[in-house]
């Protein structure tokens, strides 16, 4: 049973106007226990914001890490996505990919950094295609992002081709985990072996000098698996 202390969470909803996406985008901002505007905090940016908070229970996990594990207090920003256009925004072959990644780097980051006392110690987190777009955001903006949490990243052919063209990724640190039961994941009309996809991506990253923490564990391509792995993923960068 979850300790009731962990359930007392402060989550602020923000809405930004994006000129790149030509629409509004909702952000969910978790503020840690004892939040003080005079202090400064590391920040974790999550793709699939609503899912990270509702299914990943990331705010509850953050409270537990801060209250009981001695982790330095940190802020979380969840960026919501319309699931109907998720692939077009998160996949590098998507029609909204350039607009979304520009919105993230040039609109969301400045908005948060002007309104909240966050340090330029940024972590990007994502599941499946969310892990993919997080890595691409870092590749496109290495001056902004150097730390990635990738939960069963969906690094399809084009993503791996883009990574293969990189020559020096020694600035990048990535936490990768994939479930051993993710060998036949159906998406649309295709079936993907996420274990092989992540193994190949790991090799590509390491060959180019990236610092890679990599694990394969029993698990499916679901939030039931990813939720259990979030504490160790967050602690990896925040300890």
UniProtKB/TrEMBL annotation:
Ranges annotated as spanning the membrane: none
InterPro entries registered for this protein in UniProt: AB_hydrolase_fold, Esterase-like, Mycobacterial_A85_antigen
Any Pfam family matching the protein: Esterase
PANTHER family: ENTEROCHELIN ESTERASE-RELATED, IRON(III) ENTEROBACTIN ESTERASE
Protein name according to UniProt: Enterochelin esterase-like enzyme
Organism: Paenibacillus sediminis
